[in-house]
Every structure is written in structure tokens, then in C-alpha cells.
Amino acid sequence: MTSTMTPNLQLTPDGRLRHLLTLDGLPKRILTEVLDTAQSFVSVGERDVKKVPLLRGKAVFNVFFENSTRTRTTFEIAAKRLSADVVNLNVNASSQSKGETLLDTVSNLSAMLADMFVVRHSAAGAAHLIAHHVAPHIHVINAGDGRSAHPTQGLLDMFTIRHYKGDFHNLRVAIVGDVLHSRVARSQIHALTTLGCPEVRVIAPRTLLPRDVSGMGVHVFNRLEEGLKDVDVVMMLRLQNERMQGARLPSAGEYYKHWGLTPEKLKYARPDAIVMHPGPMNRGVEIDSAVADGGQSVILPQVTYGIAVRMAVMSLVAGANP
Amino acid sequence: MKMAIRKGRVIDPATGLDQVQDVFVAAGRVVGLGTAPADFHAGAEIDASGLVICPGLVDMSLRLREPGLEYVAGLESEMQAASAGGITSLACPPDTDPPLDEPGLIEMLKFRARSMPGPRVYPVGALTHQLKGERLTEMGELHEAGCIAFSQADAPLIDTAVLFHAMEYAASFDLPVWLRPEDHFLARGGVAHDGLVAARLGLPSIPVPAETVALQTILLLMRQTGARVHIMRLSSRAAVDMVRQAKAEGLPVTCDVAIHHVHLSEMDTADFNPHCHLVPPLRSLRDRDAIRQALAEGVIDAICSDHAPVDEDVKERPFQEAEPGATGAELLLPLTLRWGREAGLSLSQTLDRVTHRPARIMGVDAGYLRVGGAADLCLFDPEGVWQVSAESLLSLGKNSPYLGHEMLGRVHYTIIDGHLDYRRS
Amino acid sequence: MMLPEPNALIDALAAQLAPVMGTDCALIGIHTGGVWLRDAVIQRLGGKCLLGELDVSFYRDDFAQAGLHAEVQPSRIPFEIEGRSVILFDDVLYTGRTVRAAINLLFDYGRPASIRLAVLIDRGGRELPVCADFTGLRQDFPAHEHIDLLRSEAGELSLVHGPW
Prior knowledge:
The complex is a heterotrimer of chains A (322), B (425) and C (164).
Chain A: H1 5-10, H2 28-45, E1 59-64, H3 69-81, E2 85-90, H4 93-97, H5 102-111, E3 116-121, H6 126-133, E4 139-145, H7 151-165, E5 172-176, H8 183-194, E6 199-203, E7 219-221, H9 224-228, E8 233-236, H10 252-259, H11 263-266, E9 274-276, H12 289-292, H13 299-318
Parallel strand pairs in A: 1-2, 1-3, 3-4, 5-6, 5-8, 6-7, 8-9
Chain B: E1 3-12, E2 17-26, E3 29-33, E4 44-47, E5 52-55, E6 57-59, H1 75-84, E7 87-92, H2 103-114, E8 120-126, H3 139-145, E9 149-151, H4 160-172, E10 176-179, H5 184-187, E11 192-193, H6 196-201, E12 205-206, H7 209-225, E13 228-231, H8 237-248, E14 254-258, H9 259-263, H10 285-297, E15 302-304, H11 312-315, H12 332-343, H13 347-352, H14 356-362, E16 377-387, E17 406-416, E18 419-423
Helix pairs in contact in B: 2-3, 4-7, 7-8, 8-10
Chain C: H1 6-17, E1 25-30, H2 33-45, E2 50-54, H3 63-66, E3 85-93, H4 97-107, E4 114-122, E5 134-138, E6 145-151, E7 157-163
Parallel strand pairs in C: 1-2, 1-3, 3-4, 4-5
Antiparallel strand pairs in C: 6-7
């Protein structure tokens, strides 16, 4: 009874991107289309008038069940640059605990004539559930669901890598940190393997790696020095405060000592390696300031490209009507 | 009422009987097979040609959601659903609201169940007060009120000392203890098997040791206390191997599996389908195949429906927030038949896992078909095709991974205590 | 219907453009045919003009029906548009909607002094009040036919037409 609903749910019958829920199972053609389209939006962002009229008259609802001013703002800027009307909603836990279900909330918002939902939720699969239940003309973009997926972050990371490294076919990429709890890492892994990156590594203590992670096509390293050897791209992950001490890690200090990216550790990578981080950073925990602000860091360009990539995703899905 | 059931294929898994013949029923008993007793004048006749006549199904876990959860489902609907699924005896777990931890609750449940048609209801009492895992229940009293066994259902029993003493105490009355092996701390917060699918989807996971560590504890305490233990809902190959080993060493342990775990695996959760959020979690294909093999060998004794009607409001949620459980009463027979077909077993061997064997473990007079036995019968068309849908299910729980799927094997009549309890319209 | 050989049309167009092209003039091609046309004209006339390219995908008025066009390319205007005289190049002028989108797009870069339009073929069928200032060929084509400018690997331009 194996199902293939996930990729189909995201695509129209003629193969266009209708919702963006996860990069898992999306064809390379779609990922490339997003990156190419984003390239055009980068040039829009360099103009005095940074707006295009593409989504004029469309209502984009940023529905955030989990607070994230940063991500919400980038989606808001992206939607506004596409001339959409943007409505921001922070659905706090209380209205959910009052008994209103996620689907109730979504049908209420649909009745307000939304054309697109950008959804952030603490539970894996929330965006899928919404996409299953919305009217056919409504598009859903996953802005992060639980530990599952953060596809626009994954795409902006790919955009950044392509910008600095050209293509993926000769790259060694290392993802460092709390892969287990990271939706960003999952989206990065799916994107890198789909785009043909020959060697994706994950580097973390065993307590922060999913059991069968190698089944996702990555090489597993527990030691930072070994894992960084000769890589072209280092993608750091954020260590959540609540993980810094407990059953999976003894302390932030020990983590920094063994898995924190310092200038000395970075020397194991290729001299032209770039360093990325999805933000917000814990300086002195997963990354040293000298690296974060150093010549190999592309962390700020990532943020800029994030807007172009989100504009690309929004305009591609908004134009894919069945 | 005297009843003659004509020309059905009579199967008794207890003896291996498999023969087309007539069945004669009077005063709640089977009074003749093949030939009617002298002076038998049937008040009713059923033409069973083309149908299988077997002992009514005996389900070791079917939630009626009474008391306390009647807004989800209730005795009337769920007993009808069970009957429509060919079930004539069922054990209901104690995870009601309040839990079945007082004799009064048991008496009320039995009284309510007797007052309406449907299967024979055998309550399983709570092992600890409120299922909290702290204080023992009055097992002696509860047994007298009608409890056939004692269990925590899916509630955790964290304190191993309480488990130890509960088993010792139950053993003092020679009462059976039914336990689902799950280490609370290893399983805490998890919703899916700790495997490739959970890794890909980022679902909080439950590792196999959550089951095996707890199972090892139970088996060791069983040896120590001499308690009669039945292991519920195995999910992993490693746990199946441990039971096989324990049985080989002569430990009188029995175990069951829920029907969905015989067919489904973690692969079915890959699209976040909340209907595949089950307890224990659906594990890998290897685990599932080990379960199927162990069932065929008889290492796993019984298949139950683990029927859990769940309201749409709490089911149609993101996978990890969805209430676990699946409706199963009406799917137990067709899905068991599917397993038997796929495993190459005879109908008699297949039906054994849902009739004779569970009845023996429950210690109830059911699960066989012979002269003098209770007239609890299921008449089904093994070639009957039907589609699972919200409309075709009588249970108020429409939560099934099989919605929209076709089933082979359809109940036409269910006879309980010599009365026609269900007839397909 | 036979289509003319494009080089002859480009020669004709270049002859019209020769008097008006100066160094302060900006030659902006609409992707992709308009860019090829502009390059072919420069090849004939020489001179140092300011060059730019536009992709009008983000400004099209059929987005709601057709979605985003495949292979959007970045627009590039590497100079101040403010106060500049612009000559806009497109291969085929039909409904006028692409030109409308291109004018909107140009204004998001600044306020040009003037915009003039050069096209290889004006095939009639206008739906907007747009006309070309310089035209290689003026000829009506049936509505059910499309006309495309193609470029070979070697850089040879050709015209093709066929049903939509």
C-alpha cells in the first residue's frame, strides 16, 4: 500500500509546481526552474524600483503557528515585491488549544479569499495536511513544518552554492550539527542529492543524527576534522537552546569544542570553501565569530538570495493553476 | 429458536474440520452437524451455499468507547460494527473514561452490553488504579465482576516495582496479565518507527529497543513471579524473536498482533497519512515480514482488530498531532483472510488466529464449532468484494488506512448465542 | 505562405535606423528574439551604443492564465535610464501586449526621454494602441499562425511560421 501522494500533491497534472511542501521527491527540473527564475529576481532586487506587478490583486496569507519574525519577514518582502497583498497572522497556541483545529483555522482563512498560504507549524506534515484540504485555486508554501522540511531555505542554500560554485557535479558538501531536529538539513540533503551533488556529508555526534540517515544518501561523520576534509561547502546548522544540555549533549562548551566551526577547523576544508548558516547563529556555540564574519562566510548573501528565491517560488506556484 | 443452516462450507479451526454440510442450532447451541437431531423442526432456515460457516471471531482488543467517550462512539454502534465484522466475542480494553478500575464500572458495562444485541463482551480490567501505574486495582473484586484479564492498555507503567508487584499479585489469583511492551522513556514523544521514513520526514521516532527492553523486563519478571502473561501488539522483528526464544524455552507466554501491523509498514506513513498513525508504530518491511512469518509459525498466537474509533476532529491533524488508532472491527476478517491467502495457509489455519487461539488465551468458551458448543457463528462469502468507505462501515470510527480500498471476504450473517444478530442487507 | 529571408529585412531595418542611432542612444532588446535582432542591427551599423536586455515575464498580463513562462532570464540595464533615448527591439509585433509590458518594465528602471520601437515584422492584429517606429516588413498574417525568429548554433537567423 505504498503511496506516492507526496510528490503528486505538489505538482499539477501537467507537472508544474502547485504547492511547495518539501523538496523530497521533487524532480530536478523543478528545482532548477526555481533557481533560474530566482536569478531573474535577483536583478529585480538591484533596481531602484524593486517591485514587479506579477501577483497584483492576489492575497498572500502568512500563517505562522510558530513564531518566526525573520522567516515571516522574508516571505512578506518577497510577496510585496511581487505586488501581492500580504496578511500576516500569528496563530498562537491559545486559539488552537481553545479547540479550533488546524483545518478550521485554514477554512476560516480561505473564506477571507486567500490565494496563497505560507505556513509555519511545529508539527511535521502540517503543510501537507493543509494542501490536501484547500480549494484547488489556493497554493500552499511550507515555511517550515516541525523537523520535517523547510524547502525555501533549502532552495536558497542551493542558489547560494550555485552562485559561488557554478554547479553541483564536483562538489563535496558537509552539513554540520543537529541534523536530527533540523528541517533545514533535511531540505538541504534532498536538494543536494536531487541536483546531483556527488558527496553530501553529515557531521554530528550520534545523538543528533537520525537512525537511518545514511539511507538518505549521505556519508556520516562523527568527528568534525574528518568530515570537513577537502569539502567545498560547509553548511552549519543552528543548535537549539533546549538541546545544549540534557540527554543528547552535555554542554554548549563541549559542543563548541568538538563541533564548533573555528578558523582552525575550517582549515581542513578546501581553501576556497564557503561557509553557510541558515540563521540565527549562536556565535561561540556552533560557529566562531571569526568564521561567521570571515572571508569565506556567505551568510549575508544567503539572506539576500532568500528573498529572490521566495519570489521565484511564489510566482511559479501562483502561475500553476490546474 | 431452532435454525437450520444449509449447505455451507463448515470450518472448525479447533479440529481442522472443513466440509460442506448443514448446521443445526437450538437453544443457543450447535445441536447437529450434517444430520439433524431427531425431532428437529427448524423455525428458520438459512441457505449458506457459497458461504463459509466458521466459529464467530474472537477479538482480543476492541474499544467500545464506553464509558466516557460516547461522543466518539458507543456500545450500540461498535457492537453492531463488531457483529457486522463476524465478531461474536470481544475483549474490551480498560482505557475508557474513567478507566475500568472498579467493579461497579464492570457491572454497568456488562449490564449495558447484555441489554442490547451484539457480541459477548469481556472486559479487561485496569491493572493499576486510573491506569496511572502507581496503585494496584482490586483485581479479586474486578475478576468476580467479570474481568477476564488485567492490563494497562496503552497507558505506561513506568515503575518496574509496580509492574513486578502487579504480576505477583495477579499470580496469587492466577489471573492473566496482558501487557503491551513499551519502555516509556524510550518511546516518549515518538510517533513513528525509528527508521528511514522517520529520518526523511523528520517525525519524532520510537526505536525498536522501546519494545525489546520492555519485553525483556516482562519476560524476566514473568519467570520470577510465575504470572500468566499475554503480550499485546508486537511490532518488531527483534521482539518476535525474543518471544520465539522464550516459547522454545518453555515459558507459557502468548502474544498477539494488531491486524494493521500484519499488512502495513513505515512506508505507508511516507505521505503523512494520519490514518497510519498507530500504536505501536508501523515499523519496517522487515519487521512486518517477521510478524507475518511468526503468525504463520504460530509464534504469534492471535490477531486482533485493536479497534480504536477516533473522531475526525482529532484524526485530521498533522501526523504527529493526530490521535493514534484505526477502526478495525469490520476489517479484521477480510484482512486476516488476505494474510492467509498471501501466506498460502488453509482457511482453517488462517481463521484459527482469530477464533480458536484468542478464545483459548481469553479463557472463554468460544472459538470452535462442534456439536454441543455455543452457537456463535460467522457466515461469510470468501469471494465477496466490498469497498471500505465511511458509508460502508457501521462503526462510528471512520478512521482507516484502507478507506477507498477493496476488501475480499464479506460477512453475510452473524449468529450469536443461537440468534441471528447480523444479516447483511 | 513563404516567409522572407530575415537578413534582407534586417538590412531594411538597419537602413531606417542608421540616421537616428547616436552614442547616447540605448538599444534594448526584448528576450530573446529582440536581443538577436538588435545584435544583428549593430553588426551592420557598428557604433558604440548603450546595450540592455529585458525579460518581460514578470510584467505579462496573461500570468493568471498561463503562469510564469519557462526560462525566465534576468533583465539587464547596466546604465541610468533616466533621460535616455531608448530604442526597443522585438522580433514580431502582434497584439502589442509584450511592448506594453516592456514599457512598464523600463519605467521601473527610471524615466526615459523617449522610447521608440523597432521590429522585424509587424504582422498586424493589434489589441493595444502600440505602433512600431521602424519596421523590416509590414504584412498581415492569419490569427491562427505564429511567427518566430530562430537562431542556429552558428548564429544564423531564420523565420518560421506555423499553427499555434
